[in-house]
Amino acid sequence: MAEQEESPGGVPPLDEEAAWAAIVAGYGQEPPDPPGTRPFRPIENLMLPEEDVEPLPPKGEKEPEAPEEETPPPPLGSSVVFAPGVGMAGPRDHSLADPDDDADDADEGHFVQPEPELPPADTTAKFAWLAVVGGPVLLLVAVLLQWDMTWWLTTLGIGGFLGGFATLIARMQQGDDEDDDPGRGAVV
């Protein structure tokens, strides 16, 4: 075993073997609760009365009068004082209003957005979309089915994609902000 050397400051080094032996000896034991705390209660027993609380006497019997003793003040946070007029009802006590009560009033001011109408697609736009989607799909099918990549298959796949994409970009409407079209926004 190595020599015991004192660390600077006069503190003897920690005996690791003794520390591990103490940890192993205390394994599985629960440390004692601090003074003044109540023991742990599992969730199944939370509604049961505590041991230090006396049960209420049955109705009809009078409580025996106990001599008045000076009771210590309750621990902090054990009582809640509400403002006058505020009941004990909380957010979980809230109930929804009956939907049949105000059925006529609710529909009166409700706005129903109309379904948007898509502009009709012309033949050029349909073929452009077919080329943009069909070109890569044609090349993918050719690779999966192990077809020979001939010049016309490659030209049709790549050229179709590029031509369709260029057609769609060229046909996009130019965004003129100066146009005062009333159909482009909300009507107030």
Mean pLDDT: 75
List the secondary-structure elements in sequence, H or E: HHHH
Shape descriptor reads elongated
Task: Report the count of strand segments.
Answer: 0
Poorly predicted segments: none
Can you count the helices? Answer: 4
Strand content: under 5%
How much helix, percentage-wise, in residues?
Answer: 25-40%
Could you describe the largest sheet, including whether it forms a barrel?
A: none
Radius of gyration: 42 Å
In terms of structural class, how would the helical and strand content be classed? mainly alpha
Distance between the termini: 91 Å
Question: Which tags fit this structure?
Answer:
188 residues, mainly alpha, 4 helices
Question: Would you write up a description of this structure?
Answer:
The chain has four helices and no strands. The chain is elongated, with a radius of gyration of 42 Å. The chain starts with 15 loop residues before the first helix and ends in an 18-residue tail after the last helix. With 188 residues, it is mostly helical.
